[in-house]
Amino acid sequence: MLRMTLPSEKPMIFTGHGSCRVAIIGGGFAGASLARQLAIGAGWDDQQIAVFEPRASLGAGLAYDTADPALRLNVEASRMRAIPGEPDAFFRWLELSGTKEADPGSQVGSGSIYARRSDFGRFMAERMQPLLDRGIVRHVQERVERITRSGPRWRVTGNRGTEIVADVVVVATSHPRPKAPGMIAQALNGHPRFITDPSRTDLLAHIRPDERVFVLGAGLTAFDVVASLRSRGHTGRIVAFSRSGLLPQPQVGGALTPTGNFVNPPATSALGLLRRVRLAIGEAERSGLPWQGVFDALRQQGQTIWQALPHHEQARFLRHLRRRFETHRYRMPPQVADLIAEDMRNGSLIARAGRICRVERAPDAISIDLIVKPDGLVERQAFEWVVVATGPDHTAAIGSQPYLAELDRQGFLKADEHGLGIACDRESRAIGLDGHPTEGLFIAGPLARGTFGELTGVPEIAAQCEQIARLIIETVNGCRPGCRPMMHHS
Length: 490
Hints:
By secondary structure, the chain is of the alpha/beta class. Helix content is 32%, strand content 20%. The strands form four sheets. The protein has a seven-stranded mixed sheet with strand order 12-18-13-14-15-16-17. The longest helix is centred in the last third of the chain and has 20 residues, at 458-477. It is globular.
């Protein structure tokens, strides 16, 4: 049974006819995809699928909920396989809706389309709207504050008082927000010129065109900040600072053929995988093929590769190869790559590597001492603004959400051993503190990376959500009133 209590109203009870009910926490791409797969995969009555999402629409989430036209997808629109069984759905929508024609800047090279992120969010919202209109999916526009056991079911409470009792809960929230390093945070927390949330590109409007900006980070998020600033007319000096100095590589134009086989036989060590990748790149280059095709093969085979590595070799990969892999796997769209290259040529954008040894704050300026690689020389630089763009703080995945911290305290879930998110089995069921799967609690999307490895791109998330939906529907079809309760943890 699904029970909803609205503030200042008499409780509303929706009868379940013996069907299991599903509450999805997070309505970004993962949550919306799962809700859609559930809705079209079984004969649901009204209000049986509830999605908690504080944003106004479903499908955008943190990644695509932006009005900033400078932020673009970093893969071609034709490869955004968001809808299982309809691989070209997004590309067709761009053409039929007139969105591609209205965005001439999306076309690069010989016709490749790199669409605006906001357009993909709009596409997903339109795909979800019929399900909302028919009442199959309910959008609860609230943040989740608590999830507790209620007999054999779960009680989900939103921040505005809505309560839903459901047989199945799926955690489909996105990456945690970035975390500023201790020295920067200690020195600058509360400073009006310290921007800690790079997804809030609207805050960049406060930066004057000639002001100097220190961007902490040098990945895709950092260069999104640069692109957004430049699109607003900013011409001042920008320094992108990271520990490694490794920068994301550009996408290559034209159709790519995935090149290389890394699963037959499977690599059993990080070093063995590295050697095979280098060999594959060498063979590709000798055949006149771009190295990007090798990394596309790694992406397609990523989950099999990751799961074949022993735990200690996974840890070794993360420790020694992760940054190099990410700079080649997560590549810049051509529009951003061209902008970054030009800014570096004219000196308005400088990339530095090393560490920060001193920070001083003043009302209108911030001084930072950098120990710069490779010589270890100290550079003192002054900026008007500091922007944190270090990427998600995966270690805070549970602690950043009070309801996840409470589920952790009660033993229903735990962090994965690599610190990438939440532990789950290969059926995406959360693993409790006792080491066993928690019945009726699933983890969807990037928070399940520790188990699956490759689980950031749209096609991979869509495939995982399709699998979770199938498992839930099988449970529903074999469910009776009062589904099998989960083992309680002490």
